[in-house]
Structure formats: C-alpha cells, structure tokens
Amino acid sequence: MATPTDDNRDLLTVIARMKAKPGKEADLRRELEALIEPTRAEKGCVNYDLNQGTDDDGVFFFYENWTSEAALDEHLATPPLQRFVGLIPELLDGELVIQKLRRIA
Length: 105
Description:
alpha+beta
C-alpha cells in the first residue's frame, strides 16, 4: 500500500500522541474528529489521519504529512487548533507529544 512519502520524501511527517484523562475518552475523540475536516482543507496538508490505540482506547495519534514546516506552522496557528489547545488541560492525561520526522527509507 502506498503512503504519501512514497512519492515525496521531502514531506514533513508529524505524529501527535495524546492520552485521554480517565472518563474523557469520548470527549477527546469528538474534539479530535472536529479537527479533521478543517485541517484537511488547509494549504499544505497532504494527509491528516486520526488513529486510536487498540490496546488502550484512551490513546490517540494523528499521523500527518505536510508540504513544509511553514505549512505546519500555519496549521498550529489556526483557530480550530488553538481552540483544541485550550481544552488540553481538561481532556489530556499528560502532555501532547509531537514528533516531527523525515522519511529516510
């Protein structure tokens, strides 16, 4: 199965990991799902895929690819994402962990 980086190794891949506070799993999922449509419409967004843990349904990951660091920076400043950032203390157990990657193989 092809991935976005098969055709463009210069894409910036981002993996964002978060864990819901106990009892907040459904709330977190709803808020994350609300980010998908506006983000996918943003300039520079190649894909923005939400995943949920199979061993722990309170763990969520976004797997994202962006055309550039600048496009990611613009995404991070959008109103929908800034709204979500304001909800982090209420919804997350621990920190939002963001890892930026470049495909090498």
